[in-house]
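Colleagues,

Please find the record for the two-part complex below.
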Amino acid sequence: MNASAGRLSLWLLLTPFLLWIVLLVLVPHLQMLRVSFQVRESWDTLAWGLEQYQNFFTESYYWRTFVRTGVMSLFTTFLTLLIAFPIAWYIARLARGRAKGLLFLACLVPFWASELVRTYGWMILLRESGLFSSWLQALGWADGPVEMLYNDVAVIIGLVYNGLLFMVVPLVTTLDGMDENLVEAGYDLGGNHLTVLREVVVPWAMPGIVSGCIVVFMLTLGSYLTPILMGGKDSAWFTEQIFTQFITRFNWEQGAALGVLLLVLSSLIVWLGLKLSGQSLRKVMG
Amino acid sequence: MGIESDLFCSNLVRRFGSNAAVDHVSLDVPAGTFFSILGPSGCGKTTLLRLLAGFDRPDEGDIHIRGARMNDVPPNRRPVNMVFQHLALFPTMSVGDNIGYGLKRQKVPAAERRTRIARVLEQVGLPGMENRNPGELSGGQRQRVALARCLVLEPTLLLLDEPLGALDLKLREQMKIELKHLQKAFGTTFVYITHDQSEAMVMSDQVAVMKDGRFDQVAPPEELYREPATPFVAGFVGDNNRLTGELVAVQDGLAELRLDDGSMVRGRLGQSSPPIGERADLFIRPESLVLGGDALRPDYSALRASVTATLFDGANSRLEADSAGQTLYARLPQDGSAPRLREGAGVQLAWDPMLARVFAPGAV
């Protein structure tokens, strides 16, 4: 194979990737960035300006929802980590042979259904006429139907459930590669459960923890169905506002500005997380 | 000696299913001893070490360390530290933090911690290496860090699980000697497990030869070599020739064997002697075999053999010979007095019967 043929095959291999990056990532985002700085003066005249961004900061409903979405996403990510770590530990270190595969499959199975179906599943359990409510009544712990949907707790339950797999997988991968002797050495040199976890296991699993957290945080921040369906009217989520601007209000300029702000927020928090944990994106994403 | 020793175990048993990996093992290791447990892989030595470290519990028997019963004490509360086979240095910590980990757990203040880390690093020959990462060190240096990490805690007992296995030959020879010197310098009691008999012989004060979960013999290296108690020890420790024949007579502790080709040989009777008329094995070391006829004394036992090959290996050069279908190795003299031996040449191999051992046939 000569040099020009080699170059041709390289380009052919790169083409799908480049098309994807340019057409589906770069162009739409640049377009959105452009639209976000356009101010509509009348139905056919446009001017450049920062009006949409000013709206965001002056209209407290926008930035409050924004902060709320960020904080709740961080909390959801943290909660997912707390729940996923013991599961991953069990799958990676304690389960053997067939049990290991089955447990992994059990984590995967819910993801064969769409997010919509999974969320409805939770709604069946949590709603006023749902399973949990009727059980509570049957056990005599509640006098009437209990509404467990349409509050922040319900939203977080749904979001944690959706993120769990994406936290478990990277954690299992890193914990699987850890030498059993490291844990034993941790105990042998005088450590208790807590110190071994803090000084030996967590530092080792850090790349997995960070990559899991990044994925779950991004998914949560950008999720739309779960907060809408399980949060009800009072539980505002930032993606919902972007949707409203684009679809209901037909205000693409404002929607684009909010979209850009969401992108900036998520990038900023991921960057901060990497800095704080002393990890680099290259190390975390392998 | 006794229950107040640094390590005293009585009738330890650890079963996995119906198989006893450790089968009624008793041992007594006085303070300051370098004690080795030598055995082939699968003999239960790692299981025994894990019982001592506390990662596993014995089904029967007691472990005492300086008189205190350790059976129910978790590993982090035992005055015992372990150097793992693959060292298990914490990859996320610097050398200094690796060594400081145990001190931190003992709540040693930071300033004292620093001086103790610096001191122990100097003792193992790695001064000023605190801030290096274990990944940047050579195999021998990592070895020393693993030792320092344990020794800085001044344990009563240091367990070593074949830590030299991963090193190349040259470095292993060097570390063997260094380990022995370090043990003497620190005065800590070492319990070292290995399948490499040379490691056990060079370093130890006492060696226990382990087979199928039991100790065959516990003795200083030289006694193990010269006075093996069982055919397994005779075959496992050092090189040995084995001749199989029929026991025909016993006189003054000397046994006479008739080999399959009819030649008669003699050797001292070991502890497990077969009855007369049964099969028996005679063990004779390569260096105990004398070549040629002129040095032969009347009380020596002798055998005709034909040369198969001469194996030159410096100070360890040997002659391979065949006698009635049994292969024998004899050490070639190092003063150049060895006769030039061609392949197929006839040769007389003789030995002092007092240096040969006769046992009932056993697994080797």
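Residues 169-186 of chain B form the longest helix (18 residues).

Comments are welcome before we finalize the supplementary table.
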